Amino acid sequence: MKHSLRKTASHLHLAYKYGESSDSLAGRHFMLEENGRELTLCIDLSPNFHIRNKSAASYLNAVTLAHEHHKLKFLQCSDNLVRARLIKAWERVDQPHLRLLLDLGLHGRYMYSVLPHSLFMGGIQFDVLDVLEDADEAPSRSRLIRHDHSSPRPHA
Predict the structure, then answer these.
(1) Comparing C-alpha atoms, which of 143, 96, 136, 92 is closest to residue 115?
(2) Which domain, by its residues, includes 73?
(3) Which of 32, 49, 87, 133 is most buried, taking the most CB atoms under 10 A from its CB?
């Protein structure tokens, strides 16, 4: 079952291992998919690539994420609507496990096992526990997939 947490853009803060950070990314279409105890939060980050100014901070931060996705330490979303709706879904599930799927469009889809916690000033932070794989396959699988869009994919 899928639930929309927010459709419009919301500001995101990312931090990487070794002290690097990013403050200029915007996510949209925050979707929560429930599958038993597995909750998967999907965030569309592809609009950060759809700008004319290729030296803009949002574009450069999106490119950095595509290259450094395996070093992601945490992601913060300051949106209280996302936080409130995620908490409601979290409370409905017995011993939930949360995964985070970052969709960068043609630049890949990256999935993480995360631990969420509310921030004191509002919003929510997702601490990365593990980098997971096979973002397009069954939820029980755990291998990283990076889409190669140069070759056609078979139709289902």
Answers:
(1) 96
(2) 2-132
(3) 32
